[in-house]
Amino acid sequence: MDYLQNIKDIMKEHPGRLEHILGVMDESIKLAEIYKLDVEKARVMALLHDVAKKIGDCTMKTYMVQGGYDLKLHHKLWHAYVGEFLALTQYGVTDDEILKGIKWHTTGHPDMTELQKVLFVADITEKRTRLFEDARIMREISYKSLNEAVAYKLNYMLSNPITHHPYTVEMWEKYKKYLKGSE
């Protein structure tokens, strides 16, 4: 399947989202090359990570139920779970590393593989739409230390005064030691 063309087709009315997805793909490929990881898996994961982002709430809820996901999750996280579901059911992706990478790209997870961490970081460090200073700093860090970039992103996420997914908090406990200047 030509994932790139498919994403371009379904996001044609959402050019900003398409730019983000393409930016995540570019950054994921770059990081996969730096860390000698599977570039094709990084590309597929990046292209499909936001495939559900523009689905309406009613349809999103239907997919959440069909996928057996917890409807109590914050609705802003649903697109990641539905993205995993669509990758499996509509795109035929069966690779668990790709599927879990899509599912965890918003929350992180303490057991993420190196490739999944690439997507987790690239989602905030891509150059096409993420132009704020923290994204630039994380991008530079990511070229030298993926784990430090993960720690920086988690610290950034946890500084937001919202309720955080337990995976995010668990991951922070595992990765905070990589943050420069932390205890």
Helix content: 55-70%
Cα-atom radius of gyration: 16 Å
Q: How many discrete structural domains?
A: 1
| CATH homology superfamily | Hypothetical protein af1432
Broad structural category: mainly alpha
Description:
The protein has helices at residues 3-10, 15-34, 39-48, 57-66, 78-89, 96-104, 114-125, 133-142, 146-158, 166-175. The protein is mostly helical. It has one domain (3-178): Hypothetical protein af1432 (Orthogonal Bundle), CATH 1.10.3210. The chain is globular, with a radius of gyration of 16 Å. The mean pLDDT is 95.
What characteristics describe this protein?
single chain, mainly alpha, Hypothetical protein af1432, 183 residues
Topology (SSEs and partners):
Elements: H1 3-10, H2 15-34, H3 39-48, H4 57-66, H5 78-89, H6 96-104, H7 114-125, H8 133-142, H9 146-158, H10 166-175
Helix pairs in contact: 2-3, 2-7, 3-6, 3-7, 4-5, 5-6, 6-7, 7-8, 7-9, 8-9, 9-10
Summarize the structure.
By secondary structure, this protein is an all-alpha fold.
